[in-house]
Predict the 3D structure of the following.
Amino acid sequence: MTTILAAGDVAISRQEQLAILNGCRATLASADVCFAQLEAPISARGSKAPNARLAMRSPVEWAAALRQAGIDVVSCAGNHCLDYGYEALSDTLRLLDRAGISRCGAGERLAEALEPAILQAGKHTVAFIAASSILPEGYAAQEEKPGCAPMRAFTAYEPIEPDQPGTPARIRTFPHAEDLSALVRQISAARKIAEVVIVSLHWGIHMIPFALAEYQIATARSLIDAGADAILGHHPHILKGVELYRNRPIFYSLGNFAIGQPHEWDPTILRAPSFRHLIELHPEWDLTRQYMLPENTRYTGLAKLVIKRGGDVECRFRPAWIGDSSEPNMLSANDPKFHVVREFLAESNRMAGLASRIDQDADELIFS
């Protein structure tokens, strides 16, 4: 039996790196393999990209701190990977390698970005593949250009009542066929060398509770049909529902995990038009608090995949709660916050029309 834990977004802009992970280190270390989404490059070099809405960059010590906390592998695919240009991305890849953290999802060229991270986890060889659907202009890797692996999607607006001018349209989204085919090929290749293949996707509708985009469902199911054993989603900064498709889990968003508040990266962001729009998406921000994000962005946890003999995957979740300093703290079942997180996940499933059932086993939730 092999245990894999997976966290959502991790990134900091602080002098003290390890403290933000003190409330979860023991749990992270308990897994055979522990994954996280690296939300920001790790570097002291580079200049802010002109099209970065909130340019993020973690200090060089962050890679070693993540390894010390128990993180074994990260996805570098996301909408901040080139916030400080090619130099910072190159530093990130080098610093992760030096720290002994496996990586996937970004590289000096597209082939490297698509290449899986291969790890030995217990008795299983596990492959991690990563890509991003959230792509500022120029952030996608190309054949001879650095960046992250793309899993683009298209948006169309379908009139619901064409004879009623000005009425809202239905938003339709669908995956980019070539990007999807590239991931399918990577899964097929990875299955030849790994018993377990996990795909990490930076995607979805940020800040709005419960909502899933059509392309997410189509993409996730296609990748599981192609042989993926689990999908790990992130980017929305809030937990979303969990689906079991062909007995394989799709975590549509793991939410934030250990990531600083917006003003820690750029104090001027609070006055930016793009930030005001972000607040409008979820009106429960409170800019007077130390933790200014909406209260339900505190709900977090760790996806837990238990790989059993024969390759069956048991889907579990360890609830956690983000404190005022943006630090995740694991929850026990006797803490009322544990049940707040459980109910939010259950409501997320109901609102998204996902049929998975949630049961409890001690301090863990089980999806079936």
Q: What stands out?
A: The CA atoms of residues 152 and 177 lie 9 Å apart. The two ends are 18 Å apart (CA to CA).
